[in-house]
Amino acid sequence: MNLFFDPNLNADSSEVFIDKSEIKHIEKVLRKKRGDFLNFTNGKGLEALVEICSNKNGLTFKVKDIIHHTIKNQNRHIALSPLKKSNYFELVVSKATELGIREITPLICENSLKKSINYDRCNKIIISSLKQSLQYHLPKLNKATSFKDFILENRYGMIAHCNKGKKIAILKALKKVKNKTIVIGPEGDFSLDEINFARDNNYNEVILGSNRLRAETAAILACSLMSASD
Questions:
Q1: I need a surface site. Which of 15, 22, 178, 208 has the fewest CB within 10 A?
Q2: Is the Cβ–Cβ distance between 79 and 105 less than 8 Å?
């Protein structure tokens, strides 16, 4: 099965529209032809079964059936500092989408080496990963926010850091928290002030394993464990 994306698809749609590059892929790579069927989503829970038709202008795509998919595990949220190398942050965005994370927030910390991300590129990566993983709900990519503002707006989460302290295994924490929100710091880790602030606002300090991990590795592992814990 191949999944295609049309953000304008809705429950009343009779036809879907895709760009010429996708049509070329359908014809030349997938070898689809008139009378074959394709699956589309709008990233908001709709799936459309679409028949390939044709007219004098070329291929058209007629909606034959609509399926509504309810969202599952809506409370998976990861906040990660923008990383020095943009492709590392983008890798996390891709894998978080594949693993069913519902919200992704760029987190501006005291030790963040970068303060911004390329939102257009990240949203394209999200759509590509959504199609690849055959999902029907796009995760929400939030605007960058400061660490303290994020903690105050998202209480009762988890914080992973490399400093010493009383920590619990993330799998144990996931069993006790209702709000599956985790914050991952930048290359230089969180400051002690940030760790204390999170602790004071009911964040569980968690350990991701016995090895010291790069920020992007820690983020992907956290996403995997959140996904597997449901």
A1: 178
A2: yes
190 burial via Cβ count (<10 Å: 0-12, 13-18, 19+): buried
Cα 59 to its chain centre, rounded Å, is 32
Q: How far apart are CA 87 and CA 117, in angstroms?
A: 10
CA 35, distance to chain mean position in Å, is: 34
- pTM assigned to the model: 0.91
Which parts of the chain fold into alpha helices (H)?
20-24, 86-98, 119-132, 147-153, 170-176, 192-200, 215-228
Domains in the chain, please, with CATH?
Answer: 3-68 (2.40.240.20), 76-228 (3.40.1280.10)
- Provide the token pair at 16: 């879907």
Tell me the pLDDT tens digit for each residue of 44-103. 999 999 999 986 667 889 999 999 999 877 789 999 999 999 999 999 999 999 999 999
